[in-house]
Design a protein that fits this description.
2 copies of one chain form a homodimer.
Chain A lengths: L1 H6 L4 H8 L7 H14 L5 H7 L7 E6 L5 H16 L3 E6 L4 H13 L4 E4 L10 H6 L2 E5 L9 E5 L1 H14 L5 E4 L6 H16 L6 E3 L5 H13 L6 E4 L5 H10 L6 E5 L3 H6 L2 E4 L2 H16 L8 E4 L2 E3 L17
Parallel strand pairs in A: 1-2, 1-3, 3-4, 4-5, 5-11, 6-7, 6-8, 8-9, 9-10
Antiparallel strand pairs in A: 10-12
Chain A binds a DNA duplex (30 and 30 nucleotides) through helix 2 and helix 4.
DNA sequence: CTGGCCATTGACAACGCTGACAATGCCGTC
DNA sequence: GACGGCATTGTCAGCGTTGTCAATGGCCAG
């Protein structure tokens, strides 16, 4: 900036004013300064700006995603960016890859960069270590997964109720032997889904036909479902607790002796659409939008006590839960 | 930092030394300072650090992705993060959503934040405006899409050759009437794929049976493929130029009068795996890894002239290009 | 005992920018 | 013709941190 100033024969302060569109600058000076800015390729150093300005926000929010490769978070992220862009805020993203240690490190660098606010999809089971940041005034909103013992805003989907919707739907189709295929319930969302699954069955006076929580990926889900379907009293319906399992479970069903076994999956995916799999859908964009708006409410000065927003899920019937089997087997459609 | 210093009765400089593990600090002082740091939740302000230190890198690289929702870039990104993490660099990501104006804005904020280097998947057709940044010493590597008239490193896949592989494969299966379904060739990758497609056919003395470049998404691809297959002299094989079209084209084939029409798609996807679609696969992780390593080579001081790394593609036969049709129709597999 | 070496700590300036305040000079008004 | 008001520009300090240089004092060899 000093270079621009001397090249345009003005003070650095005047250059600063031109950069920030301060109105009372003579056209002559403004023109000279802008010309030099372009000629020299000057870019204000946001480190310096952020250092000097402590009062007003610097215009950047951080998003810590647990897994960027997951289309669910990609959609959430895109909605967040949209809200932020509308406010002229930059969105910076980092991914913890479901690693709590990495998550802590990244949150640290976000805090060090003095971003105006953070949206966190946490892979961690403890959040006590964030209390100091909170006390210092860092604004955060947790999304998709709730904070543990940390008084902070969060936006979640109704996982338990969603799993209940799936069960209710299958019960309505006449199924009584319903099995669960899913994640080990270490993550909050998986725990909630399992809880909702069991609760809905209990309410109908039933027990789960089986609960498999060893389906860490599509291949494991394929194995688990195949084993369930190979037993003499196989379940007539399966509930898969996350969209990464669709392919594996659908294939197991198609390959089994009971290709009409019903299937409902938590969360939508392109694969579920193509295969005609009935799903309980969350709206990742809405999740992101609400989280971002909550964050900006805080940045605008809202100091009320932490809020917890719970978004409803939608059951989308596509055939696999209504007696038509998955499209992998039943051609045409 | 000042608070920590006075609380521990030392100078700020000493606190700075403790933070940076300067070796010659008495255990007593180090202990007191660390205790106060924890008690007060102190975090160094990276704005100030970045401002003061101009010589050595600050430890952050930026990635500008064209579309984070695309699993291809998600994989690339993950590989970049892995390389950066191994070097103790933080990776910050932003998405242009294929909007050149947005891309320019985001590149601007990256430059303003004085990150040590950038990896760019550009949605822009012009890059002249980046020349000043380059002159100022900003390190950049273009990935997946080449820079236009900008002397800068880039890492690309062999798009034209890959499309050629697909054509050669289909020719080997006896197909002579091969149609192209794809993107409008405004993006470099689409242009290259179309070029490679045409070149490989020309080499065999053939013409494309048809070229549809209006398939902007799966639905449009479905329409385009359905129209091609409904004509009296329908093609016997289709080449789809990107993975977003798989579902649409596969469905069009399954619904058509010629469900055995061959299909090869550029880029792998989960859907292609499940449907048994033959693909020409790039390795997104390798792309990201190479780009990141190239960038770090530059950060380590390499000043040689810009390099252009081209990565080969692999043809993965899964049935749809070998006369078995897509699994959507042919059950079991 | 003295000088030199080195571990330990501090004072100070500067990084690039902007807020606060002040100076300049032109204008119209009474 | 003096004065207030306002457009325009400048000076200076300080944001939080670190590089530079220097001060302090303990220890050991000569």
């Amino acid at each position: 900036m000093r270079d621009v100033a001397s090249a345009a024969s003005v003070s650095v302060k005047t250059v600063s004013r031109v950069v920030h569109n301060y109105p009372f600058i003579s056209d002559d000076v403004r023109g000279r300064v802008q010309a030099e800015i372009r000629r020299l390729g000057f870019r204000p150093n946001s480190n310096a700006v952020g250092l000097r300005r402590t009062d007003r926000p610097a215009g950047g929010i951080g998003v810590l995603a647990a897994d960027l490769a997951d289309p669910f978070y990609a959609g959430m992220l895109s909605a967040i960016e949209q809200v932020a862009t509308a406010r002229s805020f930059t969105t910076l993203v980092a991914s913890s890859d479901e690693d709590p240690a990495r998550e802590r490190g990244l949150l640290g660098t976000f805090v060090e960069r003095r971003l105006d606010g953070l949206i966190v999809v946490s892979a961690d089971r403890r959040h006590d270590h964030l209390r100091p940041e909170l006390d210092v005034g860092t604004r955060m909103v947790f999304a998709d997964r709730p904070p543990q013992r940390l008084p902070v805003d969060c936006v979640l989907a109704a996982h338990a109720e969603g799993a209940g919707q799936a069960v209710t739907h299958l019960l309505g189709q006449g199924h009584r032997a319903i099995a669960y295929v899913g994640h080990s319930p270490v993550i909050h969302t998986a725990r909630e889904r399992l809880r909702g699954f069991q609760a809905a069955l209990a309410e109908a006076g039933l027990e789960p036909h089986a609960v498999r929580t060893d389906a860490v990926d599509a291949a494991a889900a394929h194995r688990a479902a195949a084993e369930l379907l190979a037993t003499p009293d196989a379940p007539t319906a399966l509930f898969a607790d996350n969209p990464r399992l669709v392919g594996g479970v659908a294939r197991a069903i198609a390959e089994s002796a009971a290709p009409r076994t019903a299937l409902v999956v938590f969360d939508d995916s392109e694969l579920a659409q193509v295969l005609g799999v009935t799903v309980v859908a969350q709206d990742p964009r809405e999740l992101g939008r609400r989280a971002a708006e909550l964050l900006f409410t805080r940045l605008d000065g809202d100091r009320s006590r932490p809020r917890r927003v719970v978004l409803p899920t939608t059951l989308v019937p596509r055939g696999s839960g209504e007696g038509f089997g998955v499209a992998l087997r039943s051609a045409g459609r």
